[in-house]
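Here is one chain, start to finish.
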Amino acid sequence: MSFVADLRVVLQGRDFKRLFGTRLISQFSDGIFQFGVAGFAFFSPENQTTALEVATGLAVLLLPYSVLGPFVGVFIDRWSRRQILVVAPVVRGLLLLVAAGLVAADVPDPAFYAAALGVLGVNRFFLAALGASLPHVVPAERLMAANAVTPTSGTVVTFIGAGVGFLLREVFGGNDAGVALLLVTSGLVFGLSALVARTMDRGLLGPWSDPDKPQARQAVRSIVGGLADGAKHLVRHRTAAATMGAMAAHRFFLGIATALGIILYRYYFTDGDPEAALRGISLVLATSGFGYFIAVIITPYATERFTIERWVPIALSASGVLTGVLVLPFQVWGLPIAGFLLGVAGQSVKICADTTVQRDVEDIYLGRAFSIYDMLFNGMYVLAAALSALILPANGKSYLAVVIVTVGYPVAALAYRMITTASRARAS
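Its structure:
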């Protein structure tokens, strides 16, 4: 298992262990927070959740990462990253206290969502600082291993945090007071990451002083042009662009499947019982998280056996066909299995996309390429949820939604295969 071997190697560094601990604590807190927001938005006994509210909730959870993503680097490269890791948890904790107070006071939902957007905006800076700090605590020869370990571990810990959030909700209750306590707990846990970050030297994580660096205002103005240049560069590297497009397609169809599953559990499977619905969707979340972990293990072997260019369409096509088989009967047992399979396939495609972009895109364009990738990753998911708001009936039972997912995945696989085959023929 290369993951275990990579983890053992990078944990030999003292400073890496501190940065890694900061990440794990923060992403564990994220899991609790995201579960609390999802429970409030989708499964509150006081709310009659609709597909439009699902789209709104997902937009709140994800859009800050896409909108702020290209811009945070300007400031991460100018502010002390160690100080960001120390100060951001405090700011986020205060915002979580505000959000908890708004929930407890039963204020209108838009006020709560505004506070949640603030929390996630701060978190975007925090995660960007973590990523930019990694080369400062890992020798160059171990950087690839560290890059393989940290995102996967963070994702797994986020799922664990969501599971703990579920258990805490059972203790605190599903009413507004219970949600408020979840948010406070998330803030307290996140604060622990600041204590770990403080153990690192202030100048350890950079950035280094550069007198030729443009002013922040000038750098912000140049970002849009830089993204356009990055997009043009990707067009010239069609295999990387196609794999990124495959990831975007997966996120779009997964967004439809997510909205479908939430509404089905909320009404069709449980007759409107929010607690039963939350338990059902939590099971799907757990099986999906297990699928993510399995993908980390099997993808290196699958791509070695089939190559990336073959494994990606296999994963996409299997996602569509098996989702149709499992979900079209509209039986409660089908969704957890579908969640597991989509977790395996989706994480497999993501690993392939990450690898292809890093392999094919020139280093000078790599940051801009991943900024575009980040925008697509979250933006397509939210776009799909918005489409679901238009097509899902009140109880969620939509044959049209399942057909879109079932047919869309193989079509995306075919498009990917055609582009990569043509690109390989042109190169030869």
